[in-house]
Amino acid sequence: MIEQKTLDKILLKVEKPARYIGNEQNIYIKKEEDIETRFAFAFPDIYDVGMSHLGLHILYNLLNNEKGIYCERVFAPWIDMEEQMRKINIPLFSLETKTPLKDFDFIGFTLQYEMSYTNILNMLDLSNIALESSNRDEKDPFIIAGGPCAYNPEPLADIVDFFVIGEAEETILKIMKKYKQMKQKAMTRKEFLESIVNIEGIYVPSFYEVKYKEDNTIEKMIPKKKNYPSKIKKVIQKNLDETYYLDKMIVPFIETVHDRVILEIFRGCTRGCRFCQAGMIYRPVRERSVENLLELAKKLIKSTGHEEISLSSLSTSDYSDLENLVIRLMDEFKEDRIGLSLPSLRLDSFSLDLIEEIQKVRKTGLTFAPEAGSQRLRDVINKGITEEDLINSCKDAFKMGWSTVKLYFMIGLPTETKEDLEGIKNLAYKVREEFFNQPKDSMKGNLKITTSASCFVPKAFTPFQWHPQNSLDEFKEKQEYLKKIIKDKKIKFNTHDAETSFLEAVFARGDRRVSKVLIHAFKNGAKFDGWRDQFKYDEWINAFAETGVAPEFYANRERGYGEVLPWDFIDIGVTKSFLIRENERSKAGEITPNCKVSCSGCGIQKDFKGGLC
Predict the structure, then answer these.
(1) Is the dihedral of CA 288, 292, 294, 300 positive or negative?
(2) Signal sequence span per UniProt (predicted)?
(3) N or C end of the chain, less CB within 10 A?
């Protein structure tokens, strides 16, 4: 345990010391004699970001509800804190008991974003734990990982001991049970991994060998023993009403990204946008009932004192009983003036009346994500919305008094042309015109349109997984072109850093050979790569040169349907033939209807029964 006196000295020298002190409301404190297994939930970014992550709160409470298990939290220390820690040789420690991470049984990382991978390495290094799993010994904790990026685990294959693919609630408890047995039998590290390798959703990279062809593509992946599974099937919670959900959340002392109750209303998505990984890997759709959500909301508000409830999902307006849910939540919390927020709304189905009712107290800006500037390209990506949808929604919103609108687009989407780029400008200008077309006496507020264009990153398990990403020069040319043509005082145009997106594309579709690039980049000084002011692109380029790995092979190369992809050994339920079919339909500009309208035969119902689609 780190001495409080030592900590106090360095905390006086850093920004936001409350990031490191713990002791917040609703944390768990357990007696030493009651603890058999210590688990550190590790978020590879700063406290302010990590404490807004719902998965952290769920697994923290789930594990701590179990007798004998103590789950604590750890976050990436910000640059100033790390400097102080390294100066006086303080290892990375948990927030609850200030225990060095090396003394835990498990360190579980959540993988939300590829650009946080070097923070994982930095956290291991600060804990005096070997970066590569092959260099860890019997005394070291197991490094495990899950979350959306774990659906292509290979870039971290040399680093992580084992992965949990899918929704971890039940699987993590099975692992803890096995570990307890391991301790009793004094099993070795390898024997423990052998004992869990056949639990559904578990992937142990060191148990597999990958063979490559002369052209550097993968020939095959071979399990080293016959009893190791050749396919790793994701795990889902079939009935959310019966799945564990927290009734309390930790309340931070400092402002975090989201200071509110998060109410997860459903998992999955029926839409089928062809660029969207979450829309594919989280299928099928599973909803919580209104009654269940009301009960959870009451408990969470009572235990946290928060003044806002956020309805969480991939597409909130697709919840089958949204109006009833919103009305009942508003009735329940009217007297306490608890606010409601509905992020992730689609502009084709949301009700402005409903939003206006919710936002009577505080009218925030509206956010729309047309993704592409032209109808042709929106059909290619299967967005399923029209320009008319957007314009009519904006017209109605302006009539009701809104004056702030955010529009999100992507550039570099497959088949994109100059006309599609011009469509981004045209759409923003049409929204502007719609505001000024109103009668002057009904115009409210000062119009502000923020138009953002991120760089398309092809992701594993999407219909666009075979497509090359635009080169850096192409992205920059497109960004400059848009900056040149969008010239209006009412429209602010933002772009995303192309170099960051390039690296994201490398690791989103990388194989296990990019593990060594990560390690080299970290040793060169890379960390907090998702933070613009910390990103060191030159060090990454050096790391690729030092390891002889060509990043363009992963980011900018078109794959054939016959190529073995690094993530092919994972079974998400959605079939490869469906993804191929969707990619071909995109080339023809054909739309695939929402799953609620007709079944597109994605395959999810074959092995993952229990959803709504």
Answers:
(1) negative
(2) none
(3) N
CATH number at 4-233: 3.40.50.280
Contact between 371 and 382 under an 8 Å Cβ cutoff? The reply is no
15 DSSP assignment: S
Q: Is the CATH code 3.30.750.210 the one for domain 237-361?
A: yes
- pLDDT tens digits along 457-502: 999 999 999 999 999 999 999 999 999 999 999 999 999 999 999 9
With 0-12 CB in 10 A as exposed, 13-18 as middle and 19+ as buried, what is 11?
Answer: middle
Rounded CA gap, 349 and 390, in Å?
A: 11
Q: Which residues contact 280 (CB under 8 A, 6 or more apart)?
A: 461, 462, 572, 574, 579, 602
Max Cα separation, the chain? Answer: 79
Residue 438: the pLDDT is 86
Q: Which two tokens stand for residue 333?
A: 């919390």
Q: Do 4-233 and 237-361 show the same overall fold?
A: no
pLDDT category at 191 given cuts 50, 70, 90 is very high
Q: In what order do the strands lie in the sheet with 404-411?
A: 366-371, 404-411, 448-455, 491-495
Token pair in block for residue 218: 């993968």
Let me know: does 566 contact 152? Beta carbons within 8 Å.
yes
Q: Please state whether beta strands 218-223 and 208-212 pair in parallel, antiparallel, or not at all (unpaired).
A: antiparallel
